[in-house]
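*** Fold description ***
***
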Amino acid sequence: TSGFVGYPPAPPTPTVTAVDVVIDGAAGVVSTTQPNLVCWNIDASRNREFFDRNLSQAGDLGRQLAYQAAALGTANKAGYSWLRFGGTGNDYLTYEFNGTVCPAQNDTKECLNETTWTNLLDFTEASAAKMIFGLSMNTGQDRRRKLGAVDENPNFPSAWDPSNAREILTWTIKQGRGGLIGGFELGNEQNSHYDAETIVANFGVLWDLVQELWPDEEGRPYLFGPDPHSCKQDGCSQDTLDWIAAFIDGTLSQGIPIHAATHHEYVEVDATTWLSPTKLDVGEAIATDINRTVATASAPYDQYVLRVGGEIGPSNAGSPVCDHTSMRFAVFGDSIWYADSLALKAYHGYDLYCRQDYVGADYGMVDCLTGTPLPDFYTALVWNSVMGTGVLDAQVPTDNATSVRAYAHCSPAEDGGITVLMLNLNAVAVNATVSFADASPVAKEGDAQVVYVLEGSDDASAGLDGGVGLASTAAVLNGEVLALADDGTLPSVEGLVVESGVGAVVELAPESVTFVTYPKAGVGACGSNWTEGGKGR
């Protein structure tokens, strides 16, 4: 468990009732992300109930979880999601293939057998996903080893032994399932256990294995790493940044092609800080530090264009029992953090945001007990539907208006339209006037705009545990509770189409997440398919 007991409540921010939101379309895109930025995690840890939850597509729960995940994949323009199969428990795995027999299960030893692996592959395929497979370091008790420790074995740490990984991967390829694996990590949060040079050497062994098993470069899985623990409520430590830099320099100098530099992030947001601009800003500080580190370390190797990705959750959350007695991060308040965090990372050019966890404990995107989608799931679903890859600069220049946050993306259609995301941290409604930096309106009078207002439900019976508002496990879209139909069908997340007037004002509900799409904004930088001459916005 994390041992984190929380900070004192954040100081209140000034309340505002009206703001200006200014989009600088003329400057072009400030960064570009991927259409499937929204990634999600399955953790093979015992305290995430991985070994107790049947993902088989022959069972109702496995099918429902995959159906819901597939909605995230098919909603984005890429048509699939990244599923990261990784976590602390992945380093405890032995793969029971080709005659290898798993040791007895204990706190640091777990078994991935043919049945469980087949179920996970079937689940991945049904989820419209590609897997990033976090391979086991088979370190057992070594997961508790501290960096610099004196070991009884003078030859430890030795190079990673890929033989057990070769067994499970060879079997997977022979079953015709190798295409479901889009990438690999090796070891989870190993920076407190091994120096970067050791991990670089292990990635060299991994790269040799990947080339051996996937000799054709087309379709060969990528490498992701180094995945250190952890940028937290105080940002990234310099030791962590230095470790990432040493890993990047070591791998690229040896010709080991890292597709994306990855890190873990847990800013420990909670009910006392969901509405704190200061807390939300920690995510931006982390992105700035990570980007600077990656850019500096990779600069000498200009043949490699490194992407950046994070395995990110609201908290390093411990091991609560899956029985609804703890729902700390399963509520709408968490969606304010999640939407803001997604937008901040996209603004800073992240290509991958793996939400910890899809299902497990009380901080999943779906409920660990019932599989019911939680507010963060619906936030991700709307995001994938309306936020494109081009990121624009958006500002709230109104004085003392830190309690309203705004972001803007090109629309997925790439036809000149834009989507503006606005978060209202105030306990009262706020009127937002959206315009371009040259003071021209984002929509002419009579143009349609499409509005998606997400809030927590005020109906105690709508959620799983009686919470309301920020504490509700039920999300409301444009006044309608988002709930599964009796047959398990997901509700529609279509927006409300309204006509705009010149200088039209968007009302931001109290403590809400609002997306507004302006299909006819006419932003040239958002218009690979837009042919009306480009207005230079």
